[in-house]
Write a structure and sequence with these properties.
Layout: H1 3-21, E1 36-41, E2 62-63, E3 65-66, E4 76-82, E5 86-94, E6 114-120, E7 127-133, E8 139-147, E9 150-151, E10 166-172, E11 184-192, H2 193-196, E12 209-218, E13 225-228, E14 243-247
Parallel strand pairs: 1-4, 1-14
Antiparallel strand pairs: 2-4, 3-13, 4-5, 5-11, 6-7, 6-12, 7-8, 8-9, 10-11, 12-13, 12-14
Length: about 250
């Protein structure tokens, strides 16, 4: 990277942070009832994509609601736990065909089969972390400043070492290949708190509350169906409608 390019990135980052800091307490959350999830504290463990670790026994499955009444009739669900180092998510869903061809990370994964998780860690600032994972174990992780519905994701800089996620996917009833016929697919991943910087409210402690939402997209037969945890409107970035995560102690 040239000095000029590095300077440009640095100035862009300073501009972003200036916007965030200069807009505290501007976000007005809605008073409508929101879904709430109590998140259990566990010891760290390795992710395998199968969700077989005993730690998942601490969490119940949470059902995602299909957004289109005439959409694909597949069940979709997730689990979540946390540790002293990061967040663990496990998604599981029925499917018939893996509509997934992208072979690189940080591509437009939402245009194919994908699970998505959004974390809004401090309601004073309209900035949140978005994570997507495809059946082929490709990922997209971005920080999203959202001012008045105007938003664009920023990719993490120096995405390496302890800032990187740990992730794995698996399939049931067929191979983990593009366009394969299957019965279900799963995604299991770990998001370290170091990746959330510079978001506030991180790391969570017992009693901490975050806002969040969880989604799924499926494209069987060229038709898109979506699922959600907290109901939103036209797009997934309506963060004021996100649900509540409450972190518990042991």
């Amino acid at each position: 990277m040239t000095h000029r390019a590095g300077l440009a990135i640095g100035l862009a980052g300073l501009t972003l942070m200036a916007l965030i800091v200069s807009h505290p307490q501007t976000v007005q959350t809605q008073g409508a009832e929101r879904p709430r999830l109590a998140v259990k504290l566990v010891d760290d463990f390795e992710v395998t994509g199968t969700g077989d670790h005993a730690a998942w026994g601490q969490a119940d499955w949470v059902t995602l609601r299909r957004r289109q009444a005439d959409g694909h009739p597949y069940d979709s669900r997730f689990k979540m736990v946390y540790s002293g180092r990061g967040i663990y998510l496990l998604f599981d869903a029925a499917d018939r065909t893996l509509t997934a061809t992208m072979q690189e990370d940080f591509m437009d994964l939402w245009n194919e089969d994908v699970f998505e998780a959004f974390f809004w860690t401090d309601e004073r600032y309209p900035v949140y972390l978005e994570y997507q994972i495809s059946p082929l174990n490709r990922e997209l992780v971005i920080l999203v400043p959202n001012f008045g519905g105007q938003f664009l994701g920023w990719q993490p800089w120096h995405y390496e070492g302890d800032r990187m996620t740990r992730k794995s996917t698996s399939t049931i009833g067929g191979p983990k290949e593009s366009h394969a016929s299957i019965e279900r697919w799963r995604a299991e991943f770990f998001l370290p708190y170091t990746l959330f910087r510079p978001l506030q409210g991180v790391p969570p402690k017992p009693g901490t509350r975050w806002r969040a939402n969880f989604y799924r997209m499926d494209y069987d037969g060229g038709s898109r169906t979506q699922w959600e945890w907290a109901p939103v409107g036209e797009n997934f970035h309506e963060f004021e409608k996100f649900g509540d995560l409450v972190f518990e102690g042991r």
